[in-house]
């Protein structure tokens, strides 16, 4: 029995050489497979196209998960609203997660209500920073002794209209980015509500680079802006810049002109190609149109 096993495990010189060659071939095939990329270089045009497609694929694959993130920079509401009547989708659009929005709806469904602005602070899903971002847009009294909701709308109420008629306007030229609420209120047609909205929108943008951006401020009629245009001076040097080679997608997305798709595309393209050499390099991203590029260019740096 022992002799039969030894005979079975014994190889003659020719068989030993064959086994050695076979082992060498297996090792060589393994090494070639692992290092094949060193001997192949895809054409530059093809590489750029593939990188661009990968970046767009990452945008689409991340879109759903991004929508559920807690946004560190809540959106400034483009409208005044009654929180007792706001839909779940609207709360999410303002910056809450789906779970946080549902918590508010459950509170209202169970008999709760918001009678004054500060009542929203009682809901644990509303943080202090989020409350601060929507406070001016709430159609509720500030407290039990506050004004009625109708007085908080974007239009001038009767009392404000009377004050406007009595007010003596000292029309003067003001700088878009170096002016406070008192400066804006000195312009005919601009009251405290409009002045606060202008400054709030200016802060969210990082400054105005054109007086035409005032037409984007919610609730102010174009005719009002038309009348004050001659008294405005652009000081675009004060516009705050965003470094596209350093900021994360969440930070880029905090700007009103940049949504999740654009922010993710800018970051993914940078990760694939390295830092941007020029601001115009983001034009290589397919989803950034000429009009959008011209709109966000003044706010970008590298």
Radius of gyration: 31 Å
- Number of strand elements: 4
C-alpha geometry: elongated
Any idea how many domains? 4
Question: With helices defined by DSSP (H or I, 4 residues minimum), what is the helix count?
Answer: 13
Which descriptors apply to this entry?
single chain; 302 residues; mainly alpha; two-stranded parallel ribbon; 47% helix; elongated
Walkthrough of the structure:
There is one protein chain. The chain is 47% helix and 3% strand. Helix 3 (44-67) packs antiparallel against helix 12 (260-273) and helix 4 (88-94) crosses helix 5. It is elongated, with a radius of gyration of 31 Å. It has 13 helices and 4 strands. The protein is mainly α. The protein has 4 domains: 2-33; 43-72 and 241-302, no CATH class; 88-152, no CATH class; 158-238, DNA polymerase, domain 1 (Orthogonal Bundle), CATH 1.10.150. The longest helix is centred in the N-terminal third of the chain and has 24 residues, at 44-67. The protein has helices at 2-9, 13-34, 44-67, 88-94, 98-109, 128-134, 158-166, 181-185, 192-205, 222-228, 249-253, 260-273, 290-296, and strands spanning 174-175, 232-233, 242-243, 300-301. Residues 63-73 and 145-168 have low confidence and may be disordered.
């Amino acid at each position: 029995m022992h002799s039969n096993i030894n005979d079975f495990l014994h190889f003659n010189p020719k068989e030993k050489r064959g086994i050695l060659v076979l082992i060498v071939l297996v090792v060589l095939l393994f090494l070639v497979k692992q290092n094949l990329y060193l001997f192949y270089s895809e054409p530059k045009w093809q590489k750029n196209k593939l990188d661009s497609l990968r970046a767009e694929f990452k945008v689409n694959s991340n879109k759903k998960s991004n929508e559920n993130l807690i946004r560190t920079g809540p959106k400034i509401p483009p409208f005044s609203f009654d929180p007792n009547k706001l839909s779940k989708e609207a709360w999410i659009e303002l910056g809450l997660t789906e779970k946080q929005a549902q918590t508010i709806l459950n509170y209202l469904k169970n008999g709760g209500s918001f009678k004054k602005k500060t009542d929203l602070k009682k809901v644990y899903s509303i943080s202090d920073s989020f409350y601060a971002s929507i406070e001016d847009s709430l159609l509720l009294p500030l407290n039990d002794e506050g004004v009625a909701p109708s007085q908080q709308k974007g239009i001038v109420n009767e009392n404000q209209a009377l004050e406007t008629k009595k007010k003596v306007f000292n029309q003067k030229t003001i700088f878009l980015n170096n002016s406070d609420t008192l400066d804006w209120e000195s312009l005919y047609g601009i009251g405290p509500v409009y002045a606060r909205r202008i400054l709030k929108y200016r802060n969210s943008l990082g400054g105005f680079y054109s007086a035409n951006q005032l037409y984007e401020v919610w609730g102010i009629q174009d005719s009002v802006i038309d009348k004050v245009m001659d008294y405005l001076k652009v000081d675009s040097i004060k516009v705050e810049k965003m470094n596209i080679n350093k900021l994360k997608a969440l930070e880029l997305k905090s700007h009103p002109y940049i949504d999740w798709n654009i922010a993710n595309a800018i970051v993914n393209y940078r990760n694939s190609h390295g830092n941007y050499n020029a601001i115009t390099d983001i034009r290589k991203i397919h989803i950034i149109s000429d009009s959008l590029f011209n709109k966000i260019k003044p706010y970008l740096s590298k």
